[in-house]
Amino acid sequence: MVSRLGFLGVIARLFMWVFLLGLAVVVLYPLLWMALNGFKTNAELFGNPFALPVDWSFENYRKAWNRGVSNYLTTSVLVTVTSTIATVFVSAWAAYGLTRVNIPFSKAITSVILGGLMLAPTVALVPLVKMFQAMGLYNSFWALLILYTAFRVPFTTFLIRAYMLDLPREVDEAADVDGAGRWTAFWRIILPMCKPIITSTILLHVLFAWNEYLFAMVFTSGSGVQTLPVGLTSLMSKHGTDFPVVFAGMVIAAVPVVLLFFFGQRYIVKGLADGIGK
Amino acid sequence: MRTIFRRAPFQRALGLAWVIPALALVGVFVYLPLVQNFGFSTLKWDIYSGSQEYVGLENYRKLIGDPVFWSSFGNNLLYAVVSIAFQVFGALLLAALVESIRSERWRRGLRAVYFIPSAISLTVAGLLFYFVYEPNLGLLNHALDAVGLGRFGQSWLGQGDTAMLAIIAMSQWQGFGYSTLLFAVAIQRIPSEIYGAAAIDGTGPIRRFVHVTVPLVREMTGLMMMVTISGAFQVFNEVMVMTGGGPDNSTQVLGTWLYRSGFVRNNFGYAAAIATVLFVITLGVAMAQLWVTRRRRVEW
Predict the structure, then answer these.
(1) CA distance B218 to chain A (A)
(2) Taxonomically, which superkingdom (chain B) (predicted)?
(3) Rounded CA gap, B257 and B239, in Å?
(4) How far, in Å, CA of A85 to CA of A272, rounded?
(5) Which of A91, A169, A254, A263 has its CA 20 to 30 A from that of B120?
């Protein structure tokens, strides 16, 4: 093999590996730096940035936790969990209705729901603020729950619908023979069959809700309703000079989603790939 | 008897219950604001005093004469151009390199490592790079120092001529792994016989990339291009976190200028007019995307 590759081929492969591994370092080093800075003191931070922390204490984490991160984390978990549940169920119902039930105007309804994919949240920002102020839901947990659900239903429905379209017709007929109603058929037969795509949509929604910033920033201001992304920026502006504490907060925000990605990689990749080009 | 009853219009209409929650949510919170936005863009509107006055197309006229609007638009455009270079063409090349590795473990590992920045939020990535670019404690200036290029060290985010490029560079770092991953999936879907045939013909890796890989992932390239352009015009998070649009509005993009006009300068009609511009751009890109996908369906 090597002889066929030839001298130039070996050099080319060497360059390729240097490039690919170099890129990996460029990605990983800033992240490592962030994690290490969470253990440093301010003086160390302003000293040699490449140095390791002298004393590996969790003091900065404790400070970050007490300066609001515990609240931000709670809100983030709450908003993420509830909006994931709402989005996945509402979307799965819609996908089921559009693919397995004979309903009137199904083509038009499909276009309306999936058409939501084309609309950017920024465009709706001003009217939404006015709407939520009028409903008395501005600066509340409900604003984020509703918005995260409404703006992710099109994408999630798109994914689940594509999957349900591929399920064989006989499944519904079998359910019909068993005398199962639509409701039972959905919960007992169709939904379990969609488990892989449901897993993908759950993971993608968690990534979205955990990281979302625009709505979180515009629709919340009190520390009781702020999610981590917004909370981190207030941590930065309120305690601006105590940078290691900010780094600790960043690590707390980043670790859950990085872990989620590593454990759910297969489903996330599948969801992303189907979502863009199916 | 039972089947006849089932097909009755009433029963059929009852099936709508499955889609009503989704329709209601999307209708009220996605479509309705969009329609309202057009109306709002014709108002002079102070949200705190509540005063509203119809001014016709005045906001759009002001938009055309607003230098910050145009520089914001230019920044979005720059964002799109750089992102297409790195996150579409660069990522395609990178994906082809990664997929040419024989070891499955290395391929998987590299794809995963490159993707990590896309999993963390733009807020965390933006804050991280705020510190990387920071002139005193930042990695970048210290790294330049370490390799003897210290004279190029500067306050990257603190001056107008480097701040926008610094933000865009961060965004490439954050996003290239995502598009590389999607291109990798597209390359994996190319039937292996095609590569086998190319190998028998004695085609070298570069020709194989140009004549086999690029044409066969063309559709993914088109879609990624649309997604990238659309994303470049919706940029908000990283600018907000890293510079807030400054210094001196030099890193303002349409999203942040909209926010500032409406929520800081209390001019909601004007913000709505910027939103309309964003709407036209993103809808245009989405239509193009739809067209790319449709055309493929006809071909197959």
Answers:
(1) 12
(2) Bacteria
(3) 11
(4) 19
(5) A91
Non-local (6+) Cβ contacts of B284 within 8 A are none
At the top level of CATH, which class does the domain B69-299 belong to? mainly alpha
Pairwise CA distance, residues B40 & B27, whole Å:
18
Q: Which residues of B, range 152-191, sit inside 8 Å of A by Cβ? A: 173, 177-178, 181-182, 185-186
Helix (H, G, I), strand (E, B) or coil at A58: coil
> What are the tokens at A151?
């703006």
| CB-neighbour burial class of residue A53 (10 A; exposed 0-12, middle 13-18, buried 19+) | middle
Window 64-93 of B: residues touching A by CB (8 A cutoff) are: none
The answer to whether the CB of B187 falls within 8 A of the CB of B229 is: no
Q: Identify all chain A residues contacting B47, using CB atoms and an 8 Å cutoff.
A: 129-130
Q: Say whether residue B13 is in contact with chain A using an 8 A CB cutoff.
A: yes
Q: Are A242 and B112 in contact (CB under 8 A)?
A: no
pLDDT at position A171: 83
pLDDT range class, residue B148, cuts 50, 70, 90: confident
Distance from CA of A197 to the nearest CA of B (A): 17
ipTM over 0.85: yes
* Total-model pTM: 0.91
Q: Give A-chain residues touching B15 at CB under 8 angstroms.
A: 97, 101-104, 182
Show me where the domains of chain B are located: 69-299
Long-range pairs of A166-171 with CB within 8 A, sequence gap ≥ 24: A167/A100, A167/A193, A167/A194
- CB contacts, 8 Å: A213 with chain B: 121-123, 236-237, 240-241
> What local confidence, expressed as pLDDT, does residue B116 receive?
96
Q: How far is CA A147 from the centre of its chain?
A: 14
